[in-house]
Amino acid sequence: MAADPLAWLSARQRFGVKLGLDAVGTLLAALGHPEHGLPVVLVAGTNGKGSTAAMVAATLTAAGERTLLYSSPHVADTRERIRLDGRPIRREALSLRLAEVHAAVTRLRRGRRLSQQPTYFEVLTAAALLQARAGHATAGVFEVGLGGRFDATNVIPAKVAVITGIDRDHTEYLGHTLGRIAWNKAGIIKPEQDVLTLEWRRELLRVFRRECRSRGARLTSLSGNVARRSRSGRWDLDLTGARPVAGRRLPAHMTDVRLGLRGEHQGAQAVLGVMAATALLARTGGHLPSAKALRSALAGVSLPGRCERRRLSSGRLLVVDAAHNPAATICLAHEIRDLADDRPVTLLFGVLADKDARAMLKPLIKLVDTVILTQPKHPRGMKLKALKEFMPLHTAAFVNPRAAWRAALAATPREGVLLVAGSFYLLGDLWADIRRRPLIR
Questions:
Q1: Buried/exposed 237-255: b ≥16 CB within 10 Å, e otherwise
Q2: Which domains does the chain have, with CATH numbers?
Q3: pLDDT per residue as tens digits for the range 394-424
């Protein structure tokens, strides 16, 4: 047994990203195949997969299922990634699961049945499946880490697959064209599955349809008209496509629905999540949640660092959003335009070196009055010299994120808005300061 299982997990980060299913498949076999027997919804996509997965899980929990949600990345604590009925895994339980994985890795390595050390993500995926078994979960929602076809989560024989949509990100692993990225995401499709997506572009849907035909899976593509937001911020959701469960249906339309997550795409993602949950319940013989329980569940969904609003002093507003690729910053810009109105906006921005920082900044700098740059404390954090090339010469820059945070606070005037964006790692660096500010629901 590892002296400190959490330290052993952290040390896995040095093995980086290794796409492929052989290592995790061998590891899960040695652990007694905890992926078998658990009804799972597997969620892939470029953006929105974390939010969608959380809303699938909330719907299943509202339906009475004991639901394990596995998502990534975390902001401040690894335990955020493994939640049972909305509650993060206890530290003691995580240590026990990691100790089980460590023991299996040790046996396999000694017997030369595991040719390479498992990565951080592979170990944590195995631990999440073990926790589902130990916690007697009756349903699981697993968010794909990277891509889909060769991601560790793809060893799970999921009954329902969700692909939120396709955009360019992680191109060094997934390919430089949208078609190639779609092929990677479509790799999660398995025989006879229900497959749901928000993707609407014909050339990408052709990729999904081809994969579905070859595997006998059923594809449902939702239009962007399934959700409409009112000026009050509430949503009208079109659930006519949701599967009947045991002869019962959800209301075809739910009006004036409050969502716990903000963003212009959250309404469509809520419909996608509810439909994915009902597809799983129809397959497992579960029960539909009541309309009241579903409303409460969707209103209660929260994820750290996703368009999160907090109060600062002097009437100022803090908005925190990882927004770690161009498509995400475009969505964030729409939200900031609505939230800020005519209020001055300060942007605190830091990003990883493998991201398209120029494209990420383009929609944001049109809306802000002051920009402060910093470098996430991560080996892949983009150096300030490179980041400053995309910005005017007068932009303030600080190597230390905490120093940048203090400068951003000082630069945000009374009634102004402070926006922190660009990387989950940047949010993690600042989380001790961010979490002290009252959360706005």
A1: bbbebbbebeeeebeeebe
A2: 5-299 (3.40.1190.10), 308-434 (3.90.190.20)
A3: 689 999 999 999 999 999 999 999 999 999 9
Mean pLDDT of the chain: 93
pLDDT of 205: 96
- Going from the C-alpha of 86 to that of each of 110, 402, 440, the distances in angstroms are 38, 30, 19
**Using one digit for the tens of pLDDT, what is the confidence trace for 354-366?**
899 999 999 999 8
Q: What is the 3-state secondary structure (H, E, C) of the chain?
A: CCCCHHHHHHHHHHHCCCCCCHHHHHHHHHCCCCCCCCCEEEEECCCCHHHHHHHHHHHHHHCCCCEEEECCCCCCCHHHHEEECCEECCHHHHHHHHHHHHHHHHHHHHCCCCCCCCCHHHHHHHHHHHHHHHCCCCEEEEECCCCCCCCHHHHCCCCEEEECCCCCCCHHHHCCCHHHHHHHHHHHCCCCCEEEECCCCHHHHHHHHHHHHHHCCEEEECCHHHEEECCCCCEEEECCCCCCECCECCCCEEEEECCCCCCCCHHHHHHHHHHHHHHHHHHHCCCCCCHHHHHHHHHCCCCCCCCEEEECCCCCEEEEECCCCHHHHHHHHHHHHHHHCCCCEEEEECCECCCCHHHHHHHHHCCCCEEEEECCCCCCECCHHHHHHHCCCCCEEECCHHHHHHHHHHHCCCCCEEEEECCHHHHHHHHHHHCCCCECC
In angstroms, rounded to a whole number, what is the distance separating the alpha carbons of residues 108 and 90? 27
Please say whether the beta carbons of 303 and 50 come within 8 A: yes
Strand order in the sheet with 194-197: 87-88, 82-84, 67-70, 139-143, 40-44, 160-163, 194-197, 218-221
What does the alpha-carbon distance between residue 199 and residue 167 come to, in Å, rounded to a whole number? 10
Does pLDDT of 2 surpass 70? no
pLDDT in tens, 241-254: 999 998 899 999 99
The type of residue at 361 is L
Distance separating the N- and C-terminal Cα atoms of the chain: 42
pLDDT value of residue 386: 92
Distance (Å, whole) CA 382 – CA 287? 48
